[in-house]
Inverse folding.
């Protein structure tokens, strides 16, 4: 009897993972530009360096999708290892990276591409689940089918500390950004149907933290599935404040609460000081029936 082929999990560099899983995946980098200078995300520019530039520099960064050639290079390596692969990309509504992954996979039938319909830690918990499946011996094609179902239950919620970077990125008017700063407005956002949606705006961090907690409680949370928190910027102080405020959600339910510095694509438009949580919803089916 032939031994079943092992499966590698491939992600793009916008996917945030818990530390224990970062060396268990292969990563295809996007491109980050500051002015005329381009960097391979995560290779030539670390997240810490990115946020230092974002916080102190006058040049607003740009991000570019990973190319088909970048994916094909990784696929070739997987083939040479005699393995199959499942690729998880950020939402196709937010980047052309998914299309690049699919173009490159045309000549690699052993590669299965999944559009996470999410980003950052939202794509990260899907990737962590995929790694668990691969380590359990699940074939690549079955993992891909499983992810297509599980991604429907992924919930990513985030609170922005400032509206300045949405304005600098052309996503908000200057008037709205200035007014928001004066009123200490903290938008709470989610990813819905692959795109960014504003759930509400709170006055002050404590009220925004409470709104995040309310949203998690109303959606329900599967504690036996991956859960990941995230932060933007060089400091996780605001995230630690949120963890303290929301301790009732986690204590006695999770062995360890994992967190990650959030990717450059989200960091560009969210700015420093944002916090986020990603989890698999438990109450979704009940709400839809």
């Amino acid at each position: 009897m032939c031994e079943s082929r092992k499966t590698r999990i491939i992600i793009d560099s916008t996917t945030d993972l818990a530390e224990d899983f970062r060396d268990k995946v292969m990563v295809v980098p996007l491109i980050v530009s500051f002015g005329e200078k381009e960097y391979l995300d995560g290779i030539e520019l670390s997240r810490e360096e990115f946020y230092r530039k974002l916080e102190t520099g006058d040049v607003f960064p740009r991000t570019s999708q990973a190319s088909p050639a970048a994916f094909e290079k990784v696929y070739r390596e997987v083939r040479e290892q005699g393995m199959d692969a499942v690729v998880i990309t950020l939402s196709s509504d937010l980047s052309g990276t998914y299309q690049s992954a699919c173009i490159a996979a045309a000549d690699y039938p052993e590669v299965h591409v999944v559009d996470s319909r999410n980003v950052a830690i939202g794509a990260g918990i899907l990737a962590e689940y995929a790694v668990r499946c691969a380590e359990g011996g699940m074939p690549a094609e079955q993992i891909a089918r499983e992810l297509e179902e599980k991604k429907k239950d992924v919930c990513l919620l985030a609170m922005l500390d400032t509206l300045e970077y949405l304005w600098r990125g052309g996503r908000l008017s200057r008037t709205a950004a200035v007014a928001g700063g004066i009123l200490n407005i903290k938008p709470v956002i989610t990813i819905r149907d692959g795109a960014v949606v504003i759930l509400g705006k709170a006055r002050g961090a404590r009220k925004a933290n409470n709104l995040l907690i309310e949203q998690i409680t109303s959606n329900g949370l599967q504690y036996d599935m991956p859960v990941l928190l995230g932060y933007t910027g060089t400091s996780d102080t605001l995230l630690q404040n949120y963890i303290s405020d929301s301790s009732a959600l986690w204590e006695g339910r999770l062995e360890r609460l994992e967190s990650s510095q959030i990717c450059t694509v989200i960091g560009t438009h969210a700015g420093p000081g944002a916090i986020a949580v990603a989890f698999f919803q438990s109450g979704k089916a009940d709400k839809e029936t």
